Amino acid sequence: MRVRVGINGFGTIGKRVADAVAKQPDMELVGVTKTHPSYEAQRAVTKEYPLFIAGDGKRAAFEHAGIPVAGMLSDLLGHVDVIVDASPEKIGRQNAPLYRDAKVRAIFQGGEKADVAEISFSALANFEAARGKRTVRVVSCNTTGLARAAAVLEPRYGVEDWQATLVRRAADPPESGRGPINGILPNFHLPSHHGPDVRTIFPNLPITTTAVIVPTTLMHVHVNRVRLSRPPADAAELVEAFRRTPRFLIFREWEGIDGTPQVMEFGRDRGLGHNDVMENVLWENGIAVNGPTVEFFQAIHQESIVVPESIDAMRAMLGLAPDAATSIAITDRALGLSGRGPAGSRP
């Protein structure tokens, strides 16, 4: 069975999910949408993705720009099994009635409130809970990163307390109108919303988060301090637990990757498309175990980390894979993710 997929919104997330869908052996990309003509709309056509018009977009504007369109969003909804809503924050909720009326399953992004969907989703944590659901919310980039780490720590070691400080990028690379460009902005909402969002997946996880925004576009960095009830014997054990888990990229000190610039350079060299790094990035020398407390840094590429999660969410909803491990393996193989370091360089 090949599931028919539409992408509503062909921006930062949407174009990446579209490319990912096109690579999956059990999925067919039926089309993508834009509201107005742009280089991204032209890029969709160049890639031979059928382009549909969403929102208040006007066909004449696309025709004037010389960009062919296949129809309106309503036409796309008539030909898909599932729609991935990759529209801007809060627009997904406005679109929800359209999907419901069209009787198509829908995946929303983490910028929407949790109650937009039946369940919030992270593939490593609650794949089975999404099985058969008609609406699923893939949690945000930061929450995805924390949920993946929780999927390693909680079942193995038992989390008693988790304090995380999120050093957040100020903007995505294309966002010229956001900042700061010379400053650090504390998030005075204490604690930040990320902890409660993680608990939409792990309801009883004792996690508290704070956040600051810094002038970079590359990645987020999480500074984690976690007290465990059954701690690992040493850092090497914890490193191995992360390394054996899909979608974790563990760099060794000798590799010379000591910050987000080198991580993104690694992404360029790996060549997955869009210079993406879809895994949680950790450093061996940035993981410590002190009695019951573990500390670790992780870097999160905000533009791409949710992409494989969106693919797995579709498989869970439609019953295309028997379990999370199977779906994750199919997704990661198609996307070229090794899950254990630079492609081809890990045993």
From TrEMBL:
Q: Where is the Glyceraldehyde 3-phosphate dehydrogenase NAD(P) binding domain?
A: 3-141
Q: Which GO terms describe its biological process?
A: glycolytic process; lysine biosynthetic process via diaminopimelate
What InterPro entries does this protein's entry cite? DapB_N, GlycerAld/Erythrose_P_DH, GlycerAld_3-P_DH_AS, GlycerAld_3-P_DH_cat, GlycerAld_3-P_DH_NAD(P)-bd, Glyceraldehyde-3-P_DH_2_arc, NAD(P)-bd_dom_sf
**Which Pfam families does the UniProt record give?**
DapB_N, Gp_dh_C
- UniProt GO cellular component terms: cytoplasm
Q: Source taxonomy lineage?
A: unclassified sequences, metagenomes, ecological metagenomes
Taxonomic source organism:
mine drainage metagenome
The protein's name in its UniProt record: Glyceraldehyde-3-phosphate dehydrogenase, type II
Record's keyword terms, sorted: NAD, NADP, Oxidoreductase
The EC code for this enzyme is 1.2.1.59
Enzyme class comes to oxidoreductase
GO MF assignments: 4-hydroxy-tetrahydrodipicolinate reductase; glyceraldehyde-3-phosphate dehydrogenase [NAD(P)+] (phosphorylating) activity; NAD binding; NADP binding
Q: Which SUPFAM superfamilies match?
A: Glyceraldehyde-3-phosphate dehydrogenase-like, C-terminal domain, NAD(P)-binding Rossmann-fold domains
